């Protein structure tokens, strides 16, 4: 089966592999410690690990877009900022 | 009692996962792949990196369409929500009038989007349309084809005509679920009509109104068919909303890379707003 219609590139393939690995590691984490570790953080409502991953990924997407729109096309600092943001979300949200 | 925990239950969601993968995830992955490349057809692609994203984010065209879309959503919410509540409050709660009102309210919701667009396109025409000819006979200079203000009024009135019923039905469902004891207590206290609405009906309708706001906002933010059929996005670009602009870019101009980048940005905005609304709704429910 040819997948040429999907127009794959290495950077986008790596991007999706990373997303898939994040989801797989969340599944493993859930298997090891079931329940999703719900807690009320600085947003003042209950979030689980899955919620925190979603907020991290969505926020990182907007950080990247803001970087592209306001600063430039080199995204390494945006990536670093996104990692810091994700750590913050998992720690405090 | 110990809770049974079996992670093999996750296999039960496998069919849904496969369905979503084929209908949403794989197409979305393809759009992401397109958004970083350029193509002239024949499955030949050239790497473009983040160029399309920068083009979209720095284009006035995108931000203008976004502004129009947000303005449209804000206007229709400001009209449809209060109007829907007002109609629901005045609908009968018992007797033969109930089924008649409910059927009348449900009718606009049953009409397909493109048919609604065609109805209003003909209705507003100044040569053969009932609305257009009536306004012309009254001396009102109305022409939705040439005048941006008239085009906006037509598109907004069309949306209000089509979708206020949804708010009415949701509000009505919220109203009839309020136990009679609340009204009896209000009568004993001598509460005014306004006080009953403000302190009993409105708080009790809170949940359904949030659902109404969510549905109407998301739907109006993604609106395509009705304004496309009536105005085609014109005159000029004055009623070109994000989805119309996206289709123009992808199919009209065959600019697939830029259209894909715009789709991803549009998708992320929708995702963010959906999450915000969902979070507000679920937390509003948990407080009760």
TrEMBL record, chain B:
Keywords: Membrane, Transmembrane, Transmembrane helix, Transport
Transmembrane segment boundaries: 12-36, 70-89, 96-115, 160-183, 208-225, 259-280
Pfam families from the UniProt entry: BPD_transp_1
Domain ABC transmembrane type-1: 66-277
Keyword Transport: yes
InterPro entries associated with the record: MetI-like, MetI-like_sf, Sugar_ABC_transporter
Membrane topology type: Multi-pass membrane protein
Localization, UniProt: Cell membrane
Entry's family note: Belongs to the binding-protein-dependent transport system permease family.
Protein name: Sugar ABC transporter permease
């Amino acid at each position: 089966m040819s997948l040429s219609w999907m127009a794959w590139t290495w950077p986008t393939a790596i991007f999706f592999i990373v997303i898939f690995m994040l989801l797989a590691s969340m599944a493993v984490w859930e298997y090891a410690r079931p329940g999703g570790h719900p807690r009320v953080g600085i947003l003042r409502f209950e979030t689980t690990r899955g919620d925190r991953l979603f907020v991290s990924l969505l926020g990182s997407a907007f950080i990247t877009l803001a970087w592209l729109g306001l600063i430039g096309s080199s995204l390494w600092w945006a990536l670093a900022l996104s990692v810091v943001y994700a750590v913050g979300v998992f720690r405090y949200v | 009692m110990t809770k049974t925990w079996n992670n093999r239950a996750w296999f039960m969601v496998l069919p849904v996962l496969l369905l979503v993968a084929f209908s949403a995830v794989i197409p979305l992955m393809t759009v992401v792949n397109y958004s970083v490349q350029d193509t002239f057809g024949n499955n030949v692609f050239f790497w473009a990196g983040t160029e399309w994203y920068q083009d979209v984010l720095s284009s006035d065209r995108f931000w203008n369409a976004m502004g129009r879309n947000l303005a449209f959503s804000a206007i229709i919410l400001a009209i449809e929500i209060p109007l829907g509540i007002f109609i629901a409050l005045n609908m009968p709660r018992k007797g033969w009038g109930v089924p008649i009102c409910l059927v009348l309210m449900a009718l606009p919701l049953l009409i397909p989007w493109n048919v609604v667009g065609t109805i209003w396109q003909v209705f507003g025409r100044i040569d053969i349309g009932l609305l257009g000819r009536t306004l012309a006979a009254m001396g009102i200079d109305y022409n939705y084809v040439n005048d941006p203000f008239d085009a906006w009024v037509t598109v907004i009135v069309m949306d209000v005509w089509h979708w206020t019923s949804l708010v009415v039905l949701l509000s009505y469902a919220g109203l009839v679920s309020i136990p009679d004891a609340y009204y009896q207590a209000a009568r004993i206290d001598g509460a005014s009509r306004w006080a009953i609405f403000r302190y009993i009906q409105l708080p009790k309708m809170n949940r359904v109104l949030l659902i109404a706001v969510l549905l109407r906002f998301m739907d109006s933010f993604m609106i395509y068919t009705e304004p496309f059929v009536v105005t085609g996005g014109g005159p000029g670009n004055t009623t070109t909303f994000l989805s119309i602009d996206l289709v123009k870019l992808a199919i009209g101009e065959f600019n697939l890379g830029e259209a894909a980048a715009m789709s991803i940005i549009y998708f992320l905005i929708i995702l963010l707003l959906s999450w915000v609304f969902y979070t507000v709704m679920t937390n509003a429910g948990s407080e009760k």
